[in-house]
Structure to design on (218 residues):
């Protein structure tokens, strides 16, 4: 008997490269998960075409068709429940999640953000990291709570900021890591290894990473 796979609902608004890496890892069975549904709030989202090409169920629920945020969220929650989704994966989903949505999937909604949270929440964060003069940036997979990029952190990847970096080159370096850590985080859920301990998330069986990163190097 093949073991049961974790059913994912992926929400995206844009190009969907994170979605693509999850699709690829599901297909290659490098993660024990399957995409039950892809939902986009934007009819032009590249993510819809990627889901179509991969033969995964997908639909557009256009937020502009709803007067209230809560009504839009209710429609999204209904579609996720209908698809039997166990873990909601926000992959470039540019909408704030309401309380009713959070209550429908307690500790079951995760997001990826292209900075080392809690530094630089919100939008245009690679540009902000460059302007600030940060020596490191990276990406964060975190639980979604009521705030903007404030939920408990599950996994982070660090990349150096290089002297010649532009917003584009830094974003590309971060995105490469996003594609790796998001699928890894999903696999941790599939293995039942993610535990909440207040704000701190514990990963059962994870090894300690003792190495410091210094930029510029000594
Ligand atoms: C990623 O940088 C993600 O961290 C942010 O939005 C971007 C989405 O990229 N939340 P893509 O649509 O997955 O290519």
């Amino acid at each position: 008997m093949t073991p049961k796979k974790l059913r994912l609902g992926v929400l995206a608004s844009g190009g969907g490269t994170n979605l693509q890496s999850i699709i690829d890892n599901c297909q290659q069975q490098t993660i024990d998960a399957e995409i039950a549904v892809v939902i986009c709030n934007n009819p032009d989202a590249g993510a819809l075409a990627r889901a179509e090409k991969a033969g995964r169920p997908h639909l557009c629920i256009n937020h502009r068709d709803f007067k209230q945020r809560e009504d839009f969220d209710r429609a999204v929650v209904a579609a996720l429940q209908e698809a039997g989704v166990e873990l909601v994966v926000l992959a470039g989903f540019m909408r704030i999640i309401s309380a009713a949505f959070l209550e429908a999937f307690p500790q079951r909604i995760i997001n990826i953000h292209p900075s080392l949270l809690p530094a630089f929440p919100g939008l245009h964060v690679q540009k902000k990291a460059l302007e600030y003069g940060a020596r490191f940036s990276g990406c964060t997979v975190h639980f979604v709570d009521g705030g903007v990029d404030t939920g408990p952190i599950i996994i982070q990847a660090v990349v150096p900021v290089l002297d010649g970096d532009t917003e584009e080159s830094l974003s590309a370096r971060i995105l490469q890591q996003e594609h790796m850590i998001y699928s890894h985080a999903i696999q941790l859920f599939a293995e039942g290894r993610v535990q909440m301990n207040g704000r701190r998330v514990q990963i059962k069986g994870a090894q300690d990473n003792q190495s410091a990163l210094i930029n510029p190097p000594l």
User: Anything to note?
Assistant: The mean pLDDT is 97.
